[in-house]
Amino acid sequence: MLVTGNEILQKAHKEYYGVGAFNFVNYEMLSSIFEAANEANSPIIVQASEGAIKYMGIDIAVGMVKILSQKYPHIPVALHLDHGTTFESCKAAVDAGFTSVMIDASHHPFEENLEETLRVVKMAHDKGVSVEAELGRLMGIEDNISVSEKDAVLVNPKEAEQFVKETKVDYLAPAIGTSHGAFKFKGEPKLDFERLQEVKKLTNIPLVLHGASAIPDYVRDSFLSTGGDLKGSKGVPFEFLKESIKGGINKVNTDTDLRIAFIAEVRKVANNDNTQFDLRKFFTPGKEAIKRLIVERMNLLGSSNKI
Ligand code: G3H
Ligand code: 13P
Ligand code: ZN
Fold first, then answer.
1. 101, 35, 26: which is closest to 71 by C-alpha?
2. Which stretches of the chain drop beneath a pLDDT of 50?
């Protein structure tokens, strides 16, 4: 059943578990996410970036989610706009039927981010849609970074407290050292868990981890075995994901892992049979790989059997 993000995340917040928010750009990714949720008996958040919406068409994206949520009526699913950059983009998503939107004004100064978020919250709450915002910048932190450099990049817990109080945003993404993509850490992986706990204590709302792909060894190996190149890639270690949940993360954004797992299978088919051109022969193993990865992730985050 299509529900608001808040409905899924308030339960996760109270019971201290994480719900995967999985990006999709086509039917193959989306249906694999639903199949995994069905197998693990888990709620899901399916999310589309502005780029993904442009690629699919907003009506097609919403239509596919609606049809799949009718097919699996027992699965609570929220449809979320990932990294909405403007009020207009968030409004278009709300009008089209999204049940959750992110306004990402984190690159603006604090006051501007607050104003823009407040505007989106008013518009979205009016229609019963939940809102996510972000504080700080998504980037890895080096071992030798100074305290002032760290403070300039990562979330400021006191600001987070004021931000949540004034905007009434439903959930917040605090920057604690993750980044998007396959190359998250230059040296040893490092996240600021103390800062995370402080933000949770001062805001007491569901928190979001962006850039949460783990790049599990078997997924990296699978991609490399096809002649693919992922030199220098590093994801968020599984122990860090578990530690994040303990620290108050409830929405766990995952895209890169799905992309690598899917494309590794496509590459395998292409390498094994250079006469093959039936799309289904490429996509079926790709879908299976995504499904397997998501079921594992649901078990790790604690959302399995939470329906
Ligand atoms: O936020 C990053 C997501 O992985 C979406 O990426 O803008 O390439 O669709 P995208
Ligand atoms: P990854 O690149 O780690 O999968 O992060 C995705 C994300 O944060 C989407 O908002
Ligand atoms: Zn993100």
1. 35
2. none
